[in-house]
Amino acid sequence: MLTVGIDLAAEAVRTAVAWLDWSAGRARLVRVEVGADDELIVEAVMAASKAGIDCPLGWPDRFVDFVTAHRAGHVRVPEGLAGRAWRRDLALRVTDQVVHEQTGLTPLSVSADRIGHATMRCAAVLAELARRGQPVDRRGGGAVVEVYPAACLKRWGLPYRGYKRTANLTELGRLVDLLLEAAPWLELGEYEPLCRASDDATDAVVSALAARASALGLVTVPAGEQAGTAATEGWIALPTTPLDHLITAGSKPR
């Protein structure tokens, strides 16, 4: 199995892609690219068994409705609500709120934070995948699943904050050390120095690990009414098992 992790930013310079090959009870990092353009991302997804993208796959449905109503001049504030209370569902998707309930972490708001720029780029990538015959199920059921590295790391008992940017290279190195200790079956090989130097590369590797969890059915999935909303907003797949299950579960007959 080949899984791909994509740490998607608004521009190629901060975008990283990682390829993990899973075989013989090992996960081997066979390629990492930092500065990935749209064409490379599309090619990586097309070649993978599963790809994990660290970026919202859509906007909150209520935000879309709000903008449409505002354009027509018919915005209505729900009765009995004021301030942030009525804006919560405009800023956060259903999956963002579920992630907060389950992990205590709040994903960046795709409608109110700068990550919206990355999502615009992501929308173009998803459209190109569909054009090439690989339509994306934003609920995570197809070749692509939305992932959130910080939440994955937290669920796997690893450091999930404080390792971003050049000023925190020591903490990034510590995260890589602890990741390799927790997953002795993970081989970073010649790309280990890059992972220690680039948090984008490391997040791409974590996203590829999360893609493996999704491929094995070891993640949260939308239930009931969540499924309909997730089809348009996207769904963050959270790991439901320890990290080593990515190897042990994959080695069992299915």
Automatic annotation (TrEMBL):
It comes from the Bacteria. This is DUF429 domain-containing protein. It comes from Nonomuraea marmarensis.
